Amino acid sequence: MKHTARKMLTFVMALTLLVSLCSVFALADDGAFKVGGTGPLTGGAAIYGNAAMNGAQIAVDEINAEGGIQFELKYEDDSHDAEKAVNAYNALKDWGMQISLGSVTSAPANATSAENFADHIFALTPSASAPTVIDGKDNVFQMCFLDYPTQGGASAQYISSMGLAEKVGIIWKNDEDYSTGLRNSFVDKAAELDLEIVAESTFAAGNDTDFTVQLTEMQNAGADLVFLPMYYQPASLILSQAAAMGYEPKWFGVDGMDGILTMEGFDPALAEGVMLLTPFNADSDDPATVAFVEKYQQLYDEIPNQFAADAYDCIYAYKQALEAAEATPDMTAEELNDLMIEQFTTMTFDGLTGTGMTWDETGAVSKGAHGCVIENGAYVGLD
Amino acid sequence: MTFLNYVLSGISLGSIYAIIALGYTMVYGIAKMLNFAHGDVIMVGAYICFFAVARYSLPPLVGVLAAMAVCTVLGILVERLAYKPLRTAPSLAVLITAIGVSYFLQNGAQLLWTPNPKVFASVVGTGRLALFGGQLTVSYVTITTIVSCIVIMIALTWFTGNTKMGKAMRACSEDKAAAQLMGINVNSTISVTFAIGSALAAVAGVLLCSAYPTLVPTTGSMPGIKAFTAAVFGGIGSIPGAFLGGLLLGVIEIFAKAYISTQLSDAVVFAVLIVVLLVKPAGLLGKQVREKV
Q1: What is the pLDDT of residue A26?
Q2: Domains and CATH numbers, chain A
Q3: How far is A159 from chain B (nearest CA, A)?
């Protein structure tokens, strides 16, 4: 009896092995491009990683349903940690990734983009906006709206040209590349334009709950506009504490502010009049955006943010580039790498986050910025 | 006036640290273990209250009671499943387990409630008390927090001093083996300690999120660490020490931000902590309170 059981077990194990072997072959020739990406699917930044993954998945499902070019998408968790991101990247490489979506956030993307460059695997990151991600790497490209040196400068330009303020204050997060980069480019541009910055104050992770000191500084310096280069979570606290203090300057945010209105329980009155430059507006009338938002809400029960839209655009940009290059899924990552570099530096792409996007040789995208203001709990175009 | 306003902001921040530190210090004082998951129990409490109030439109008081009930059960469960099997293990093993529980709760919350931030509506309203013709204001949340701290402090001191269970707790704190020989059920005593500590955590969570309304699965972790610092500052194991340490930590943090540098405020806070511990290794009130409860 015991003997039979062991025989059975051997048989079952052999069968499992065989099946798994078959599936390896099946994966290899079902004619799909293997696209891999890493992002924070858990941890404090998980909201961004999951949004990007969901956005990319929607695009993949749409394209696969059309027939024609086929994609297989795989996301690995990097918990917004550079070391974990490299492990995740290696797992994707073992899986057979041919083209990559890089990483979602900047710190892990710095680590994985170096690997992409060394391995000649092309990367198009949806949202890692640090200039160091693409710097010196000919095969790493960005989809995100304006790498931040441009965005900070563009915001200063916008404030100055629209005559929004005389005295500007800035509150920024000094332990985050994203916020520091935006602040630096804003300050540089402001100096050029003679926009007076009267107060600057910072905060850091772990110190981001109480902003009374920073707000008092702004108020005492008489800032009539406060620039908030940060993500929406600390921004929401700043807005509510300023309201409690009775301090009412104009607020100018950045793309990371997107999402503030979808926070459950947030009082939209607090964000009334907040201005920002944004590439993606979930309330837009554009039919492609409306369809995307509807599908996203149906599948994931929330309004997509800009990370989701960027990742969605990445997949469609890949589709366009692969079709134009007449690439086939049996090509190696290295062959695709050369083709993609050639395509991305020459093509023009229309997506949810902008029309007429082009990329230069450094991998930076150029697309327009729209001024938006929050009115009655919705984004309204300023121009 | 700006100075006094900073003092008041410091007290608001400090009162939150204090109420978290009370739970930390009480569990440490009796079970002699650092429950690093305390901050995450706080987060669970805040979520329960949030759902009760925002989703099921229950009155805030019911939300607080629900949070306390859930956290009490959670505290007992965690103690049973994670800490009790390690009762005789080296304290380092328990410490690492506590860190594991902390991650487990954070990630569990993320699975259950998604990482998307939620905005917590204050249970005592967002009003502020105006003093000196409106030049100084104190929020109701701060007043509630300080009153709660004092009530909890008095109640805990009375409980550990005058009830049978409280005396059993003090006995366990001094010597577990001897307490057992005297017929005290050490396991159930420690379970009760965790139950009380977790109920306090629920109250702290609700007040933390009433003051600083963004609620995410990691909400409890940083305030938890700061409150632990406050407990050490005041003398870990000492209940009035936790209160004093919390308030001082908050005031020092705000002053460091306002008068030294917003970039260096945490460094200043911890430098002060180091100096205090060099002069008084047991913390501010650590020595005066001989009985560690």
Answers
A1: 42
A2: 31-145+286-368 (3.40.50.2300), 148-278 (3.40.50.2300)
A3: 26
